[in-house]
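Hello everyone,

My group is preparing for a crystallization screen and wants a predicted model to guide construct design. The compound we'll soak is molybdenum atom. Before spending weeks at the bench, it would help to have a computed complex in hand. I've included the protein sequence and the ligand's SMILES below. Output in structure-token form would be ideal because that's what our pipeline reads.
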Amino acid sequence: MSDSTDPARRRFLARALLGTGTLLLAGCDRLSRGDALQRLFDASDALSARAQRLLASREALAREYAPEAIAPSFRPNGTTAPDDPTYRRLAADGFRDWRLEVGGLVERPATFSLAELRALPARTQITRHDCVEGWSCIGQWTGVVLGELLDRVGVRDEARFVVFHCADRYRGGDRYYESLDLREAYHPQTLLAYGLNDAELPIANGAPLRLRAERRLGYKMAKYLMRLELVADFAHLGRGRGGYWEDRGYSWWAGI
Ligand SMILES: Nc1nc2c(c(=O)[nH]1)N[C@H]1C(S)=C(S)[C@@H](COP(=O)(O)O)O[C@H]1N2
Ligand SMILES: [Mo]
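Reply:
Good plan to model first. Here are the tokens for the complex, ready for your pipeline.
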């Protein structure tokens, strides 16, 4: 595990979070208040899908690391073994029958098998994962570039966000979900990852497919993906704040 207990790193994370109007708290289970950047976002949300996509190509990249920096094992967190019956049935077969559904505000709704996803343009990157709980871990992720997948289904111009629907219910409660604006979805390092450290993504880390959004905190990176939904807003989902932890008071932006 890299620098999970380094006090300087923790202070840095605290400042970064306070800077975005979010309180740094000891655990993902605790509540925070405020989303100071939300107003800024509202401005960005008003841009068309095409404009957001154009902006994405000019965005800064998250730092990438040398292979020596990879942690010996990537720390799992949150749900690590979903007990959803459909998921368990799919996992028992090595996810042979699993398919990712992509729908909502798209021109051509579609489903993709793992083999089909592996055939799409991929990227491998070594990045640091920062959990709001105050630990970090460096790993190498391989996956399909989300923007490439979105281009296959054709995002409709009224779409503003991608919603990531997961197989698990966190601690048996509500189903886990997350969302990104299209600008982040089209960022070149935003992946749907099926590989970790040159091996298949383990179940503990989100098999068969999990989101990597490298400029965001860990809780944005939805594991156990089942369905992507393009939406104009997320008021109708969960408690209306765009994600499982957002519904419990965490920042939707969740920048590092
Ligand atoms: N579906 C789902 N995705 C999730 C979670 C979860 O509980 N369920 N936990 C989140 C949190 S808080 C973190 S830090 C990362 C942990 O990813 P890891 O298990 O690969 O470390 O996944 C995020 N994505
Ligand atoms: Mo986290």
